[in-house]
Amino acid sequence: MRGWDDLYPLPVPPYWVPGAAVGILSLHFIQKLLFPYFWADLRYLLKVVTYGARMEMYRLQGRVVTVLDKFVKLAEKQPHKPFLVYEGTVHTYRDVDRRSNRIAQVFLQHEALKEGDTVALLMGNEPDFIHVWFGLAKLGCVVAFLNFNVRFRSLLHCVSSCEPKILVVGADLLGTLEEILPKLQKDVSVWIMAKDSTFPNVHTLLDKIEVASEDPVPVNRCSANTLKSAVLYIFTSGTTGLPKAAVISHLQVLKGAAGLWAFGATSEDIIYITLPLYHSAASLLGIGGCIQLGATCVLKKKFSASQFWNDCRKYNVTVIQYIGELCRYLCNQPVKEGEKNHKVRLAVGNGVRNDVWREFLDRFGAIKICEFYGATEGNICFMNHTGKIGSVGRTNFLYKLFFPFDLIKYDFQKDEPIRNKHGWCEKVKKGEAGLLISRVNAKNPFFGYAGNKRHTEKKLLCEVFKKGDLYFNTGDLMVQDHDNFLYFWDRIGDTFRWKGENVATTEVSDVIAMLDFIQEANVYGVSVPDHEGKAGMASLILKHNASLDLEQMYKQVVTYLPSYACPLFLRVQEKMEMTGTFKQQKFQLVDEGFNPSTITDPLYFLDNSKKAYVLLTKELHEMILSGKMKL
Fold first, then answer.
1. Predicted local distance difference test score (pLDDT) of residue 209
2. I want to staple 390 with a disulfide (CB 3.0 to 4.6 A). Which of 75, 354, 444, 501 is the partner?
3. pLDDT at residue number 30
4. How far apart are CA 259 and CA 111, in angstroms?
5. CB of 494 closer than 8 Å to CB of 241
6. Which three-class secondary structure state does DSSP give residue 309?
7. Cα atoms in the Cβ-side hemisphere of radius 13 Å centred on 204
8. Which residues contact 418 (CB under 8 A, 6 or more apart)?
9. Does residue 341 sit in helix, strand or coil?
10. Which pLDDT belongs to residue 2?
């Protein structure tokens, strides 16, 4: 009897198959060993190239498709899908489209707005922020997002710098309006989100919205001729003191809106936004990202660490946005049972410290942290698509072909890039900190700041590596390691970051110098253990025969500065140290910090519980370092 193999002989593979299999396995092993991020890089680059190719195709076809255009199409395609969820109320794509139409109709009827006119928006997080934004965009207006934390002189500066025809103010910010109204330019028409007003010559919006038509305004009003035309002004602190209005084009909005998609979010995701909408992270990446995906957004009036995970569970949130401080606040909450019981899979943001990153993952579960880097007005962005802890992104030669950038040597004493004997800047080696600069070209333009040519020019570096080249100066120091991961190192100039906000030292100095007993103020940031960014500290020189009035100092800073910009520490000196170029010396002061054991000068601390500056003792210093004193 013949065997099974005789009846059904197995086919013999060709002689080359075993060799090919070994070769494939060898290549796979070599790739894993020498190029471990090859496939992750390729997938990410394909997404970037695909998105860029799509926009280029629209351009070649003579079509300009904006994020607003995409939203209007989605309102037709999926009218009943929730777009916004706010305090339990659902606003569908159709709801938001129709209410924004009403707002557009109101301004079309009551104001002589032309395409390209600017309207300033001073509102907190609420659906009407988005309704007003979209309604004005449908009229072809440039909308300026005002930071509602900014007060008095700085706020007046913001309004005047963007030269708006109209200022729209939220109902919860009428107190802020009352402060600036007497000094506001007379040619600015003021509207408030209310049905009646006690202010003279101030218009009400809510009553007019109720009776306005839901019909869309003529399409030609909002049709963009080019993606490089301005659509928003978003304010950034920068390094020169008062906030500057960064010009945001349709192109930048489209790029920002693609961020969630690039990180792997889909139309089925529910995005939780607790960051302020005046921030580009919330408005462009968050709201714009929802539109790009056709997804749903849960909007929070204000971030609450205690309610955060309850909200995530209640609304089935799958994607959250963060800044480094936000993650730390969540980690500082008392441990509760079931903290991993949620559906969040992606966390997108920037500024999270390595230790907080690890603690966040250990405590709240397998959430992919999608760290990125990008300045509001900048022309360069990095995205950590691999999840490498601590990194803001990754680069390679292909990425640099599309987004050319370099890290160059920087002189901290002279506060400028180092140039060699030939006048050219020099690149740093891998592992060394260097100033991040990004080449400005047709594909990666820099649009500058509204109404401020000097500040726009100041952000550009000319003749960097060769004659005629032009680069955007980010003002940020970065490190690129030997695996081509990028890490944020520090900020240069007169800006530091605290509570997730940029603090301009010159603005704080100017406010303090208004006091009649202050001769000079030198403001800088100092590191505090277990806190993101740097806390504000002011070195003070008193006028001759004057004494420090702590009560008046406290009243001054809380009245004229946002809470995050108020200096936490004061140091009274007899002489102000200067650099060789007659600038205030900060580096030694930063190094010395706020330790009363090593500093002989009088030190004071802003105790929010007492609403006063108090003497910084060794005991109080220990409480701050141990985290017992809340900052």
1. 97
2. 354
3. 61
4. 36
5. yes
6. helix
7. 12
8. 408, 409, 410, 411, 425, 426
9. coil
10. 53
How far is C-alpha 625 from the chain's CA centre?
28
Please measure the distance between the N-terminal and C-terminal CA atoms of the chain and give it in whole angstroms. Answer: 90
Residue 24 confidence (pLDDT): 57
Do 273 and 282 meet the contact criterion of CB atoms below 8 Å apart? yes
| Residue at 193: amino acid letter | M
For the chain, what is the total number of helices (H) and then of strands (E)? 22, 30
Q: At what angle do helices 67-77 and 127-137 cross, to 10 degrees?
A: 110
Phi, psi angles (nearest 5°) of residue 23: -65, -45
Query: In this predicted structure, what is the pLDDT of residue 610?
Result: 92
Q: 501 - beta bridge partners?
A: 498
Residues 6+ apart with CB under 8 A from 162: 118, 120, 142, 144, 233, 245, 450, 451
Sheet of 166-169: strand order equals 202-204, 189-192, 166-169, 118-122, 142-145, 230-236, 244-249
Q: Residue 12 CB: number of other CB atoms within 10 A?
A: 7
DSSP 221: G
Q: How far are the Cα atoms of 154, 158, 252, 375, 415 from residue 239, in angstroms, in the given order?
A: 15, 15, 22, 13, 12
Burial class (CB within 10 angstroms; exposed 0-12, middle 13-18, buried 19+) of 465:
middle
Contact 615, 569 (CB under 8 A): no
- Return the amino acid letter for 333: Q
Show the tokens assigned to 604: 């004071």
Measured CA distances, 617 to 275, 557, 613, 622 (Å): 35, 22, 12, 9
